[in-house]
Amino acid sequence: MGSFYVLLGPPGAGKGTQAEIIAEKCAIPHISSGNIFRENLQNETELGKKAKKFMDAGELVPDEITINMVKDRLSQPDCKDGALLDGFPRTPAQAEALSEFLEENGHKIEAVPLIYVPSEELISRLSGRWTCKEKGHVYHMKYKPPKNEKICDIDGSELYQREDDKKETVAQRIKVYEDQTAPLISFYREKGNLVRIDGTKAIEGVTEALFRVINCK
Ligand code: AP5
Ligand code: MG
Q1: What is the per-residue pLDDT across 165-206, written as a single tens digit (0 to 9) for each?
Q2: Which residues does ligand 1 sit against, CB inside 6 Å?
């Protein structure tokens, strides 16, 4: 049976940042639906073309496309013992589909850490974010600067500012989170999986709190 964790939280809460650290320490796959979409966008695949207009507008990509994409990824052999999900599920339909998929494959969700950060802080985090082109590694010009300006410490690729990190798009993404994703908080609370994590601390403090919930195998 595999152990799956879902990182829940608004845009800019630090899901990607924390998932990178935990995935490396625990040697488990980090599955970010946003990163998979961005890879497809860069490679100009059919999936990328379909997702682009939703992403640029700060809207969610339709469930049918997203659910199939993530199920395909979770069906890869490297996920047989578990994975850390970041940015999926994001709607009640995605959450139901994930539960069904995991159950069918004899897996379960161990915990759903909710990284909580108030909206004002999210905006300043996203406006200072730089992302690596190759693998989506995340930096912040003030809170997590790269060693060399605009170059990824890990793979040496160029850093860029995400198209959807513009102020107006960020506001829309936060609204979409409140409307469509926040209902998952009660969904997972009722299942007994939800653990609230204070995401306003420094990156290391948040990691520490997450490791009280996430156990490396
Ligand atoms: P996605 O890529 O998932 O974006 P998101 O959920 O909006 O989340 P972010 O990546 O913006 O934030 P994060 O929580 O990962 O924060 P990060 O660690 O980078 O989705 C993008 C789009 O793809 C969606 O809008 C949608 O169109 C589509 N999509 C994706 N999944 C989908 C789904 N399931 N269904 C439908 N559509 C989907 O941190 C932010 C910044 O803060 C960084 O600069 C970081 O260095 C800094 N930082 C992090 N932690 C701290 C800290 N503790 N203190 C100070 N700074 C910090
Ligand atoms: Mg992210």
Answers
A1: 988 899 999 999 999 999 999 999 999 999 999 999 999 999
A2: 9, 11-17, 33-34, 37, 54-55, 58-61, 66, 87-88, 90, 94, 125-126, 128-129, 138-140, 143-144, 164, 173, 202-203, 206
